[in-house]
Structure formats: C-alpha cells, structure tokens
Amino acid sequence: MLSTIFQEQVADATNTVAEGEPVEKTLSVIELITTGGTAGIIIITLLFVLLIMACYIYFERIFAIKDASKIDANFMNQIKDYVSNGKLESAQNLCSTANTPVSRLIGKGITRIGKPLEDINTAIENAGRLEIYNLEKNVSVLATISGAAPMIGFLGTVIGMILSIFEIANSGGSIDIKTLADGLYTAMTTTVAGLIVGIVAYVAYNHLVVKTDKMVYQMEANSLEFLDLLNEPS
C-alpha cells in the first residue's frame, strides 16, 4: 500500500517537472564544436593541429635537453688529469665517448691545445653557438603558436559575429534564434580554443627557455673551468 502511494507521488512529481519546468539541456564538446558551423569547425581543426604540433615540439625538446644535460660528475676531473699528464688523445676519446654538448665543447678546445689561449676560447665559443642552436631547434615555433593561436581564435570570433549580424540584417523582422546561435557558438568556441592553445604553447615555450638557459650555463661553467686549466702555470 505504502509502496503504491510512493510510486504515484514520484510519477506526479515527474509529470509536474515535465509539464511545468524546462528540462536542463546538456551540450558535449563535440556538439559544441559542430554547432559552430563550417567556419567554426575549420578553425577548431586548425587550432587542434597547432596544439598537436606544440605538444610534439615540447616533449621532443624536453627529452633532447634532458639527454644533453647528462654528464658524468667526474668528467672534468678526468679531463684535468689527462691534460695535465699530456694524454690529449685519451682526453679526446673521453669527450667522444660522452657525446654531450659539454664534452663536444671541451673536445673542440682540446684539439686547439698548443695555440694561443684566445684562439682556443674563440673555437669553444663558436662551437657553443652551434650547440645552443641545436638545443633551441623548433622552440621558436612554440613562440609563434602561442601568439598565432589566440589570433586565429579571434578570427573565428569575428566570423561568428559577422554571421550573426548577417542573419539579423536579413531576418525581415523575425530573428531565427537557432541560426543566430550558430554564429555565436562559432564566436565563443573558437575564442576559447585559441586561448587554450595559446596558453599551452606559451607555458611550454617558457619552460623550454628555462631548461635551455640552465644547459647553456652548464656549458659555460665547464668551458671556463677548462680554460682555467689551460691558463694554470706549468
């Protein structure tokens, strides 16, 4: 008896909601993108491609910098021993085996031993510029994406507003809310997507810059240590 009464009350409440109150409408991400029309889909697709590029460049560079920063803690001590004892070939072999930016700089300096210290310093600096260039490869693309993505999103915003205004101008006094909403969807979704891609690329770019600067500092510190070794009195 009580169960029957409870079921009737639930049914009455459901009918009341169905008849008197609007049902909350949900919108998935896919629906939000497709509702924006052809222009919105094209711009969102372009932004998605830029996001994939930014993620690929970021992780590829992070792993490359991580590998480049690996160096044996006793590397410079071994170099000092070899150079002090005149075992330049052994020192050169050690640099070739390590195969890191630091070891390549030291190896370049070892090949110039016997020449004026200024020439050795110049050779190391030139090799350092090449190493820095390799470390920063494609990082500028991230900077470009971080600036271009929001602009592309704003382009979608302008296109969406133009579509909405066009529909209002040609409505003849009766505005189709659905058609008007499509233009607004294009305007809003592309703006959000552009900002998201831009923020991701911007954060990734700055993180890579910090990592690269640390690597450059490591190269400079080891190069100066090597030059100080050569400048020591015999």
TrEMBL record:
GO terms for cellular component: plasma membrane. It is a multi-pass membrane protein. It is found in: Cell membrane; Membrane. The chain crosses the membrane at residues 39-59, 139-163, 183-205. It holds the Pfam family MotA_ExbB. GO terms for biological process: protein import. Keywords: Cell membrane, Membrane, Protein transport, Transmembrane, Transmembrane helix, Transport. The keyword Transmembrane helix applies. Residues 99-220 form the MotA/TolQ/ExbB proton channel domain. The keyword Endoplasmic reticulum does not apply. It comes from the Bacteria. Belongs to the exbB/tolQ family. PANTHER family: PROTEIN TOLQ, TOLQ-RELATED. This is Biopolymer transporter ExbB. It comes from Aurantibacter aestuarii.
